[in-house]
Each structure stands twice: as structure tokens, then as C-alpha cells.
Amino acid sequence: MRTQVAIIGAGPAGLLLSHLLHLQGIESVVVESRSRADIEATIRAGVLEQGTMDILTQSGVGERMRKEGALHHGIELAFGGRRHRIDLTELTGSAITVYAQHEVIKDLVAARLAAQGQLLFEVSDVVLKDVQSETPSVSFMHGGQPQQLQADFVIGCDGFHGVSRPQIPEGVRQDYQRIYPFGWFGILVESAPSSDELIYAQHERGFALVSTRSPTVQRLYFQCDPKDDVNNWSDDRIWSELHTRLESSDGWRLKEGKIFQKGIIGMRSFVSTPMQYGRLFLAGDAAHIVPPTGAKGMNLAVGDVKVLSRALDDFYKKGNSDQLNVYTETALKRIWRAEYFSWWMTSMLHTFDDASPFQQQIQRAELENVVNSRALSTALAENYVGAF
Ligand code: FAD
Ligand code: DHB
């Protein structure tokens, strides 16, 4: 088999790249280890920045997002028994859309298949070869048969645990990492929304987040021990924890409902550089991870792919490799700012077991500053909507 661009992984990064390349007349093949049903059902992100909404719309896959997603013009920060609104649109002119990542995946898979795009699901034993040469290839098993895919480029969109990043030798690569001492317990609930906007709550018992998926399904998270087991959490215990962390004397109450999905995720900040090695390029979680507090992960994957699709277009249309040569540098500027924002939101909103009483007071003062200063609220809003 031969193609122009071999893409490993059918997450948001791999699928969107394949779609954008197709619109530019560049051929690609996507190889994915999981089944279509599995990738279309995995519950992950929910917040799309303005730039992500724009690229989905401009590339013709935004119709369902606009119809079924919820456009939000603000978020709330809750602490000290009060809620404070950050008016994203007034402060930045932009907004966000709450639309589940797996719905974006469904829309992209449908678009690729409608265009006769090659998506190979349930592949195994993926091995990258000769990525430093001009004739790289990918070998893998598909449908019980060994396959060899020759390409001009191999793009690693295979997430944090994929096989692409380790192709860059350790002596060449520099990894930056911070692992947080807490995780998020996430649930999906059958109920009407409790709030028109997302609520990010800081509480002495730990962070909590109220998000949504649709008029009948809600998404809630709370800070937990990353090594905890979901089986330790009965529905009653979950509701009691969420009520305590989110409610105050202002009368607002969290709506309960049937919990139909529970999961725990660990939290880390991670950047691996360079994001390219010969004809191998990394995009999305394969190269970087953020803790979810800033809602940046999927948006960063989309940002990388935007840069990469333009650089590949320049290569194929004009024979110009300049943009490809500076891919890492171009992508990292945006990535480090998002790393900073995600770290900052995480630090400001979570409870650290080892925080001294002094650090606790400083954390509270920082939140007071953010909600009382238009300059700081604007900085938060600009970062949150991805206004640059
Ligand atoms: P992935 O989505 O991880 O896709 C990689 C794909 O590669 C997978 O389908 C995998 O099966 C496949 N793969 C792996 N190894 C191989 C292999 N060897 N061969 C073939 N295929 C392979 N981000 C936001 O922007 N906003 C949010 O609100 C947000 N909330 C989140 C909430 C949670 C609970 C979690 C877990 C994450 C959240 N994120 C959020 C992060 C976001 O989900 C990720 O950043 C995003 O999925 C990255 O996309 P990706 O395409 O780079 O990688
Ligand atoms: C969601 C996830 C996030 O990480 C976040 O910051 C906000 C919302 C969500 O899944 O809805």
C-alpha cells in the first residue's frame, strides 16, 4: 500500500488532519488500533474553543456541533460560598461550545468515510520504519494479514501511550513533566442541567466541576485520589461529596439523576520536544498533555493539526519545506502557553494536601484577585477561549 501521509491514530488529531489534507487534495491513510464503535463511544473532552469551532465549521464538519452543541458565553468560579461569573464574550468577543469529543469523532469519521477516505480500524503491531529517510513506512496487522504502508510522511497522532514518540531517540528528545497528586472522578448523569454555564469550584474538600452534554445528560467531575477505585464510590457518596463542594447558602442546588458512567483520570503536564524527527511529526497528546482544568487538550491537538496541514500543503503545492522545518517551534509557542494556563487553573482551583495555612490563604487571595480585577478576568477569559 502507498499513500502520501500515513497517520497513526484516529483521535481528534489524526481524523481532523486526514480530513484537512483531503480538502487540500493530499491523500492519507489512518491506522487505528481500536474499533470504530470504541472510538465513537469513549467519553473524554467537552469544551471547544472558538478556534476549534471555526475550523470544524470552515472545513464542513461543524453542522451537528452548531445544532446540538451548547454555545456558552461565560463560566463561573465558585469559592468561599459564592459564585462569580467570568463573562467570556464581553471580555474577549469569543465564546466556547460544549460538545462532546466523541461527537466530534463521529462527525469526522462520517466525513472521511463519505469521501472514501481510508480509515483502518483494529490494526495491531504497528511499527514505524525509516522515519529519517524520504521513504518512511508503517507495518501492521489488519484483518489477520500483515500490511506495509509506504508514505512520504508519518504523523504520530497516537496519544500519550502511542508508539510514535518513542521513535525519537532519547538522546534527541527532551521531556518536561509534572504529575499532580490528585485525579478527577468523572460521572455522566441523566438529568436536566443544574446551571446554564460551567461551574469551576474551589473547596477545602477539593475541586468540583459542573459541565453538561445535552438538555438531558450532565457531566460532573470532582477531585479525588488518582489511585482510588470507582467501586469505593456509591452513588450516595458521590452526591453527598458534590453537594458539599458545590452548594452554598445562595439557594442554588445541584440536580441529581441516574449516574450511568463513572471513571477516574490521573492528571499530568507533559511536553516532549522536538515534535519532529526526519519525516515523522507528532501531533496532539502524542507530544503533550495538560491537566483538564483549562479544557485545552483537544483544542491543542486541533491547533497542531492546523499548523501541520498548512505546512504539508506548502510542501506538496510549492515544494517548500520551510514550514515543516519549523513545525516544532511554531506549535510549541501555543502549547507552552496552554501548559501554563492549565497548570495555573489547576493550582488555583485544587486542594493540595500539603498546602500550609499560608499557601491556602494565598490561593484564596489569587481567586479574589481574578474575579475582582477586570485585567485578570480578561487574562483568564482570553486563555480559556483561546483568543490568540
Ligand atoms: P487521542 O484522543 O488519545 O487519540 C489517539 C488515538 O490513537 C486513539 O484512538 C488510540 O486508540 C490510537 N492509538 C494509540 N496507539 C496506537 C497504535 N500503536 N496504533 C494505532 N493507533 C493507536 N480536552 C479539551 O480540549 N477540552 C476538554 O474539556 C477536555 N476534557 C477532558 C476530560 C477528560 C476526562 C479527559 C481524559 C481528557 C480531556 N481532554 C480535554 C483532553 C482530550 O481528550 C485529549 O487531549 C484529546 O483526546 C487528544 O487527542 P489526540 O487525537 O491527540 O489523542
Ligand atoms: C469538561 C472537561 C474539562 O476538562 C473542562 O475543563 C470543562 C468541561 C467536560 O468534559 O465537559
UniProtKB/TrEMBL annotation:
Keywords: FAD, Flavoprotein. PANTHER family: P-HYDROXYBENZOATE HYDROXYLASE, TRK SYSTEM POTASSIUM UPTAKE PROTEIN. It holds the Pfam family FAD_binding_3. SUPFAM superfamilies: FAD-linked reductases, C-terminal domain (SSF54373), FAD/NAD(P)-binding domain (SSF51905). The keyword ATP-binding does not apply. Residues 2-341 form the FAD-binding domain. InterPro entries: FAD-bd, FAD/NAD-bd_sf, RIFMO-like. This is 4-hydroxybenzoate 3-monooxygenase. It comes from Herbaspirillum rhizosphaerae. The lineage of its organism: Bacteria, Pseudomonadati, Pseudomonadota, Betaproteobacteria, Burkholderiales.
